[in-house]
Hints:
The structure holds three protein chains of three kinds. By secondary structure, chain A is mostly helical. Chain A is built from 13 helices and no strands. Chain A is globular and about 70 Å long. In chain B, 76% of the residues lie in helices and 0% in strands. In chain B, helix 3 packs across helix 6. By secondary structure, chain C is of the alpha+beta class. Chain C has helices at residues 47-55, 97-107, 112-125, 141-153, 171-188, 199-205, 223-228, 233-238, and strands spanning 7-18, 21-32, 36-40, 62-67, 70-71, 82-85, 159-163, 191-196, 208-213, 216-221, 243-251, 254-257, 260-263, 273-279, 284-287, 295-304, 309-315, 320-325, 334-339, 345-348, 354-362, 365-368, 371-374, 386-391, 396-399, 407-416, 421-427, 432-437, 446-451, 457-460. In chain C, the strands form six sheets. Chain C has a six-stranded mixed sheet with strand order 6-7-8-3-9-10, with helices on both faces. Chain C has a five-stranded antiparallel sheet with strand order 13-12-11-14-20. Chains in contact: A-B, B-C.
Amino acid sequence: MKRSHxxxxxxxxxxxxxxxxxxxVMVYAFQDGEGHFTxxxxxxxxxxxxxxxxFAVSLEVAIENTLICILIGYPAAWILxxxxxxxxxxxxxxxxxxxxxxxxxxxxxxxxxxxxLGIPLGKGTLLFGMVYDYLPFMIYPIYNVLVKLDRSYLExxxxxxxxxxxxxxxxxxxxxxxxxxxxxxxxxxxxxxxFAISEFLTNNKIKLFGTIIQENIxxxxxxxxxxxxxxxxxIIGITTLFSDDNENAEEALx
Amino acid sequence: xKKFFAQTYIWFLLALLYAPLILIAIFSFTxxxxxxxxxxxxxxxxxxxxxxxxxxSGSLLAAVKNTLLIAFISATVSMxxxxxxxxxxxxxxxxxxxxxxxxxxxPMINPDVITGVSLFLLFVFLHISQGFLTVILAHIxxxxxxxxxxxxxxxxxxxxxVYExxxxxxxxxxxxxxxVxxxxxxxxxxxGFILAFTxxxxxxxxxxxxxxxxxxxxxxxxxxxxxxxxxxxxxxxxLMTLIFLIILILLIIINVRxxxxxxxxx
Amino acid sequence: MAASEExxxxxxxxSKRFGDKVVLDDISLYIRKGExxxxxxxxxxxxxxxxxxxxxxLAPDEGEILLDGxxxxxxxxxxxxxxxxxxxYALFPHLDVYENIAFGLKLQKVPExxxxxxxxxxLKLVSMSDYEDRDVDSLSGxxxxxxxxxxxxxxxxxxxxxxxxxxxLDLKMRKDMQIExxxxxxxxxxxxxxxxxxxxxxLTLSDTIVVMNEGKIxxxxxxxxIYNEPVNCFxxxxxxxxxxxxxxxxRDRRVAFIKHEFDCVDEGFGEDVPVDxxxxxxxxxxxxxxxxxxxxxxxxxxxxxxxxxxxxVDTDTGYELMIQDYDPYPVGTEVMLYIDPDDIQVMHxxxxxxxxxxxxxxxxxxxxxxxxxxxxxxxxxxxxxxxxVETKFEHVDLLDHQEDGVIAGEVHFLLYKGDHxxxxxxxxxGDHLWVDTNDIWDKGDLVGINFAxxxxxxxxxxxx
Lengths: 254, 266, 464
């Protein structure tokens, strides 16, 4: 038996538990309750101002969250990966650790703090909490790429006359893009789709797209729920197209 | 000067990140129902956690047990399935390799709501009644890709001839696997297992959609239900503090061991 | 120890394909008991594949492999009485030196005290006695090499297979290990099959060399035979330095090249036949005696190479030759030269022009090599006719950019023939074509390929 055949059990498993379910999402999205083909679920979304509003808010929050995470996370990752500025492994562990703790638990802790401080829950607390939750997921992949970056590239750039500022923008940043891509995938997607987190952080005032999918599925509106999930799948497809080098991006995680 | 700014920035971020966890930890030593009002030092919350009423099914501790059991079973299966798959993928070539790698990436890119909904539709479609088993299957499906990605680099680093060297020296394929391949892939398998395990512990959405209606609770779903009822059970503060400590200790042990191994290699 | 006449391994008409690619094409070869045989060739020539067929990691698509006269196709590698020293050693990083060497014996359930005795003995053989407990990662390349050899030898194989074992070592270490390997072979008396791309290593070590290229055996012989009497341009070019030149056999023992005629010792080629001629650079002699002088030349470069000087000269007839001599001649010197008849090696030409099979598309287009080329109007040929297309080596147009050609290819092999280059081009479709050109190309260059319509000679091909 060829060793390449060892992938077969996994491929079969994935076909059943990953590919088939996604196909089912599409099938249900284009069916009515009786199993007939229909576009009604899709058109319903585009005429449902509540759903459209939620959709817009979700995208807005996700984009804002992602940008803030990059702005805060990139310098942090850069400092952590720079041996001249940080020699302590403990700080790195401390940044990674929140990734290991249940996100709901961390979110609840954050929400409790807002309650304790008497800050009203809303858009601001939502963003704040999201950044809290997802910042480590941005820092870690960028750190991972930067720490493995061959220093000779930086030295070569300096040797060729680049100032430290130029070295950073022309060499370090482009070479760390797989990490950023990976970070974006790990922050943007979950933010668009999250449901429990937004409920806790806004006391149900702001609904995100994930929440309305969940509500529809839970109230047995499978077809409409599937249609909403399908729309989200398309958003994901578009996002991943922008990050063309997926394989590198995924491996930046490990 | 530069270093001072850098360090300040790092520690400021860490302080912000950990403030909620530390507050929770502090208030786990008082009995007050609401966070923020200190009613005197007490270890009552910890005692409650391990007392009788918390042990009943449907209770917090039962949820913790379920979470651990699901994570352990699914991560173990993921580790085995993923390692075998990684060996296969490593030996694939060209388009086939790309196709399988793409397949492997889907669950990692997919938001958990989509994974949850799609698996929910699958189980409905196949008329499989949802419960413990379906949750485990779901967790295997999103945990295995992490194992594959952890084991693949080890395969790439491995001298491609070691497996054949073992056969050459008289080992049967089975012996070569046990005595040569597995020991060399072990670090990748272990980190893959840990990743799959934590993904499973962390999961809420997928479990939420695939646990069915039999009342199966994991830590996540318990907290979710609890929070929606309004207010957090005070015992959760003690539990969070414990989990926080356990993970901190585990991470330190792992890192100290890694540092030591690197030193002996040098 | 002299090799006996008894064959230990026979390969009979063995072929192997990976997908569409033929890596071994009808190879036949025997190896005598106790012999040191080297499979020599450039990367991708099929030498490692041949070794892996013998060790059992691959199975032949056609043909059979015999051990002591018995077919061993069905025997898995772990049951074959051979052991391999792998490229980059393949030591088990999780085991120490002792455990690595004892691996095979433990699997055979050899008693512990016996294992210890044998491991110690073999460690002594490779001069690594004090290293038993060392981690293999802490060993130098040369030491790892010795452990890899010990690990194979401790199982007392009938044949030791070595797959480029010295490739990862530096030059000095490689030379030392060559001597040690040679001594080990003498001492142990077992058969060694050795794979390398290093011709010097092959010449130093082997009793017999098998020169391979593109999945075919080019020549089998002793090192001296192979060096002195290469059978074709490939072997001449691959083994040692050589001047390879276009020539013409005038009659028996008389050959013309570089526009001069020379006496030689070859016979039986016929009269006025195109041939290739090989002259080793150390076989062209300087003389001051006008009576001995066969041709004159002007030195255009002179480089010291340690033992000898390497000089390039331009002959009076416009050819460039390489000469090696212990005495330097300054650049610009006019020199008189001669070549002994014994030192001229005449070879049959493998081909004199390109021949392709194709099919007419219409009157002025022919399809071949995976592309459609324009040709002159062909009378008497209709669309769909199967045709044979011929073109001279110098009539192939090579273009810098792949997309500028009708088809694309890669420079696969090149020979300098004194006044032009002879290139072998591998097309995208896997066809070969040969090109004579004055332009300078490097191996691996990607080129576009085209033909002028007038240079394609087309004739109808009979369906057979």
